[in-house]
Specification:
Blueprint (H helix, E strand, L loop, with lengths): L11 E5 L2 E4 H21 L10 H21 L7 H16 L13 H23 L1 H6 L9 H36 L3 H50 L1
Antiparallel strand pairs: 1-2
């Protein structure tokens, strides 16, 4: 009986010396290479006016959609968030999009990958918040509205990071598992339909992950703005 691999971490693609390279690491490198070389090729031939290439037009449409979404969610200028959130979305989207290739294992089907992506968001939230109004102002919101809330605010940030990682991993892994079971039972029509369905679901999960990351970052920076505005109001009243 054929063994069904739940996670690509258990699949060894090749070895570098005595170091085994798992499918998670290998396909993460593949996705990164595709994104980097694709961006270099498209941006090396940028032009203005009506005579632009189809690839440049497609890239401009994608960037505009991501930028508009960030603005709608954060209600702030999207330029400073665009590189981080855009990269997150494109990486997850391409990882989930290539599942129709035989022998491909999406890196997002590994908890290690989704945990790493969630940790990036976990670090980005305070980084953007501190850049917005400083370290002390950011740390101050952990003890608001009262000091007693300090452990609960910390647990809240840790739990949402864990949920972010588990949600993406669980959805991608369950889709792969269901597809593998259906292939072993009905090896023709139904698996093809399931793959098409998984393509759509994979893009939705990429969108949800990026939206949640934008919401967390927006909440972190808005807290700082409220604190700063409150401080300015109090100083004016004292004057």
């Amino acid at each position: 009986m054929e063994t069904i691999n739940i996670t690509p971490d258990t699949i060894t693609m090749f070895k570098i010396g005595s170091w085994p390279v798992s499918a998670t690491i290998f396909y993460t490198w593949v996705i990164m290479a595709l994104l980097i070389f694709g961006s270099l090729i498209i941006t090396s031939r940028l032009s203005t006016g009506k005579n632009i290439s189809r690839w440049q037009h497609m890239l401009e449409v994608i960037v505009k959609i991501i930028r508009d979404q960030i603005h709608d969610i954060t209600q702030q200028k999207p330029e400073k968030y665009l590189p981080f959130l855009g990269t997150l979305f494109l990486f997850i989207s391409l990882s989930n999009f290539l599942i129709f290739i035989p022998g491909y294992y999406p890196p997002t089907g590994s908890l290690n990958t989704t945990a790493a992506l969630a940790l990036c968001v976990f670090v980005a939230v305070p980084a953007y918040g501190i850049a917005e109004s400083g370290l002390l102002q950011y740390l101050k919101h952990y003890i608001e509205p009262v000091v007693f809330m300090l452990p609960f605010n910390i647990i809240s940030e840790l739990s949402r990071t864990l949920a972010l990682a588990v949600r993406l991993f669980g959805n991608v892994m369950s889709g792969m598992l269901i597809g593998a079971i259906l292939i072993s039972i009905v090896p023709f029509f139904l698996p093809a339909v399931m793959n098409l369905f998984s393509l759509l679901i994979g893009q939705i999960h990429a969108y949800i992950f990026a939206v949640l990351a934008a919401v967390y970052i927006a909440s972190g920076t808005r807290v700082q703005k409220k604190t700063t505005q409150k401080g300015k109001g109090e100083r004016k009243e004292n004057e």
